[in-house]
């Protein structure tokens, strides 16, 4: 005891104004409203350089593929056979392909498909994963069966199964919805159904932890129903892991779609996607190696930016790291 | 530990049966017709005979049962016969490929060495590069080495193999002319020169695969090292005067390897099945290419058997990873 007394400086009784610089000022800090949680997340996110640039780059790519055709009006399927196999120039910034189609326009059209598939498949996987995760975490009876189901899906060899699904269900869906819509639905559903498992596991873990917290008990004690409980108290609190898996899900979906197109089991040949453009360009690898470069670069940059975005979001949304 | 292993092994049986049923039903519900390639001039009754010859005449559950018997009972007998020269399986019907009319497992056995050579080497190379990078990145956290390592592994995550593969072909094969762009599987290693040729044709696929493997494992290694470097036992080890090398390379490394070893074990199934795209890019005729070819030719027994083999490997190595985790880390007790 005596030792400790000697070490503790005698400032506990002094007014705060002498101990803390600026402490004597007016009590502005307390009159300000408490800062918004999302503002803090944004502040943390801003400081993560990679995430910020990744986010900006992803935004630019999305704007380019969706709004680009408004400015660059050449049709992606317009064939100009006299202008075939041209190098980069003023009229065709990325050159033309073996049928004289403008590569710049095709890149935008391909990107539109790839990004749309990526985002839609991610939303589907996220919806499925969150649903299974919340159900398994919230209802004890469902936990066992749903988690065994998740393990089962994790044990399936995914790429082979995807390839088999593409092969088997392409024709009936094509005849039902038309060649482009049919294959779009097929790819989105196939990717979504095979990639919800990580989200489900993470969400379940968080829900299990949340269920033991006092505010859930409080809400329960005033008679909140299960539906209200999930929608109002559980879901907002598991939003951060869901958002992180969302960004990473876009990356996986874009890569998977490109891989399918690259293996020749994706969209039909006249319907450009980045994977398809890359696949077509490999035939001209010897003569025009630069053609491989653009779609490959587009896929890689998109996935890289999304990965950095997810990395930054994970740091920004984690309250344990925030403020460091 | 033993009870846990046995329990998991017993649980693996229904899992695998269910997976085989899913694969079977998926292929069964498929609208594809194996007779689609047969010319229209062939009369319908002959077509019906051909269908029966392929084993398609019977109802679904009987064919599923036959496949199970062939895969789990007859094929192991064939394996025993091949090893010991006995004749248990004489006269039994094996799983037959519709493409080649020869047993599926024989083709798989022919294709496995190519896959193992290329993908296995890449896996080893990737691990050997990743572990030192992970250790040093964690030891010098936020240094320029760490930042570069993070960036490179982000690239490894983001650049898909069908782009990096094509890119290295453009650079090293088209422009520089150092390595052949197509992997020659008929090449036999007999002397030093042919060994050098074999190495040359392996460099590019191995490079592409190793980049991805390195990216993943070095991230894991770094995270695991960082977890351990801040532990109290590290301070104790330093305080009692151990050298920095001993502290990091013995105390911290051994503890950090525990999760990394399980991650490595979990990745082994991908050696056999996951390199489908890389094999396609470099024209390595391994297992992955066999699957693609079978899918395009509508060869259902082949697709079913291959997909199921991948599933068996995934389940098996998941089990191995769990058991390894328990063996390596005495804090974890399953019982």
From TrEMBL, chain A:
UniProt topology in membrane: Multi-pass membrane protein
Compartment(s) where it occurs, according to its Swiss-Prot or TrEMBL record: Cell membrane
InterPro entries per record: BP-dependent_transpt_permease (IPR050366), MetI-like (IPR000515), MetI-like_sf (IPR035906), OppC_N (IPR025966)
Main location: membrane
Gene Ontology terms: cellular component: plasma membrane
Residue stretches spanning the membrane: 51-72, 117-139, 151-169, 181-203, 238-267, 292-310
Keyword Aminoacyl-tRNA synthetase appears in the UniProt entry: no
A Gene Ontology biological process term: transmembrane transport
Domain ABC transmembrane type-1: residue ranges: 111-310
Keyword set includes Repeat: no
Family: Belongs to the binding-protein-dependent transport system permease family.
PANTHER family according to UniProt: ABC TRANSPORTER, OLIGOPEPTIDE TRANSPORT SYSTEM PERMEASE PROTEIN APPC
Name recorded for this polypeptide: ABC transporter permease
From TrEMBL, chain B:
Gene Ontology cellular component annotations, sorted alphabetically: plasma membrane
Bilayer topology annotation: Multi-pass membrane protein
One of the Pfam families matching this protein, by short name: BPD_transp_1_N
Transmembrane segments: 115-139, 151-179, 199-217, 257-277, 308-328
Domain ABC transmembrane type-1: 112-321
Compartments, record wording: Cell membrane
One GO BP: transmembrane transport
InterPro entries in the cross-refs: BPD_transp_1_N (IPR045621), MetI-like (IPR000515), MetI-like_sf (IPR035906)
Coiled-coil boundaries: none
Predominant location category: membrane
The entry's keywords: Cell membrane, Membrane, Transmembrane, Transmembrane helix, Transport
Family: Belongs to the binding-protein-dependent transport system permease family.
Official protein name in the record: ABC transporter permease
Lineage: Bacteria, Pseudomonadati, Pseudomonadota, Alphaproteobacteria, Rhodobacterales
């Amino acid at each position: 005891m005596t030792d400790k007394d000697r070490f503790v400086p005698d400032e506990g009784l002094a007014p705060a104004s002498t101990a803390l610089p600026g402490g004597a000022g007016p009590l502005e800090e307390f009159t300000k409203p408490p800062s918004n949680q999302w503002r803090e997340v944004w502040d943390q996110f801003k400081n993560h350089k990679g995430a910020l640039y990744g986010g900006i780059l992803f935004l630019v790519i999305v704007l380019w593929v969706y709004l680009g055709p408004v400015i660059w009006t050449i049709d992606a399927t317009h064939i100009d056979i006299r202008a075939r196999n041209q190098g980069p120039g003023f009229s065709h910034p990325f050159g033309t392909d073996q049928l004289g189609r403008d590569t710049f326009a095709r890149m935008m059209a391909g990107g539109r498909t790839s990004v749309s598939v990526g985002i839609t498949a991610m939303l589907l996987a996220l919806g499925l994963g969150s649903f299974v995760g919340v159900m398994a975490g919230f209802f004890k009876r469902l936990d066992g069966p749903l988690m065994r189901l998740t393990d089962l899906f994790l044990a399936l060899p995914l790429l082979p199964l995807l390839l088999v699904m593409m092969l088997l269900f392409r024709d009936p869906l094509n005849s039902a919805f038309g060649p482009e819509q049919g294959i779009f639905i097929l790819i989105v559903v196939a990717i979504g159904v095979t990639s919800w498992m990580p989200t489900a596991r993470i969400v379940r873990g968080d829900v299990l932890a949340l269920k033991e917290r006092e505010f859930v008990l409080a809400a329960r004690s005033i008679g909140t129903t299960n539906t209200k409980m999930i929608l109002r108290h559980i879901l907002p609190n598991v939003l951060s892991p869901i958002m992180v898996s969302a960004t990473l899900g876009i990356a996986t979906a874009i890569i998977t779609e490109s891989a399918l197109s690259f293996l020749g089991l994706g969209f039909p040949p006249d319907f450009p996607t980045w994977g398809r453009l890359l696949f077509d360009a490999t035939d001209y690898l010897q003569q025009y190696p630069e053609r491989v470069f653009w779609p490959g670069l587009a896929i890689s940059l998109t996935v890289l930016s999304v990965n950095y975005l997810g990395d930054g979001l994970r740091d920004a949304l984690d309250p344990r790291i925030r403020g460091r | 530990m033993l009870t846990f292993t046995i329990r998991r092994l017993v649980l693996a049986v229904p899992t695998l049966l269910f997976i085989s049923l899913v694969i079977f039903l998926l292929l069964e519900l498929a609208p594809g017709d194996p007779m689609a390639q047969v010319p229209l001039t062939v009369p319908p009754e002959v077509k019906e005979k051909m269908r029966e010859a392929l084993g398609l005449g019977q109802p679904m559950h009987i064919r599923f049962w036959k496949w199970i018997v062939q895969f789990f009972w007859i094929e192991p007998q064939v394996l025993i016969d091949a090893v010991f020269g006995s004749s248990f399986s004489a006269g039994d019907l094996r799983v037959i490929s519709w493409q080649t009319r020869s047993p599926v497992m024989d083709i798989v056995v022919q294709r496995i060495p190519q896959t193992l050579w290329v993908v296995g080497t890449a896996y080893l190379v990737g691990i050997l590069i990743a572990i030192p990078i992970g250790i040093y990145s964690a030891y010098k956290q936020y240094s320029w080495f760490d930042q570069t390592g993070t960036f490179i592994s982000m690239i490894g995550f983001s650049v898909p193999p069908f782009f990096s593969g094509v890119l290295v072909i453009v650079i090293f094969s088209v422009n520089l002319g150092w390595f052949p762009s197509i992997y020659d599987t008929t090449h036999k290693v007999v002397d030093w020169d042919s060994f050098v040729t074999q190495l040359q044709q392996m460099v590019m696929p191995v490079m592409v695969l190793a980049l991805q493997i390195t990216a993943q494992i070095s991230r894991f290694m770094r995270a695991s090292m960082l977890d351990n470097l801040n532990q109290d036992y590290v301070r104790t080890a330093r305080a009692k005067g151990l050298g920095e090398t001993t502290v990091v390379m013995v105390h911290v490394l051994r503890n950090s390897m525990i999760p990394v070893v399980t991650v490595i074990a979990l990745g082994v199934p991908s050696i056999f099945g996951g390199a489908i795209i890389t094999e396609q890019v470099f024209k390595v005729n391994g297992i992955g290419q066999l699957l693609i070819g079978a899918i395009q030719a509508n060869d259902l027994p082949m697709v079913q058997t291959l997909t199921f083999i991948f599933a068996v490997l995934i389940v098996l190595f998941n089990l191995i990873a769990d058991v390894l985790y328990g063996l390596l880390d005495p804090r974890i007790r399953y019982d």
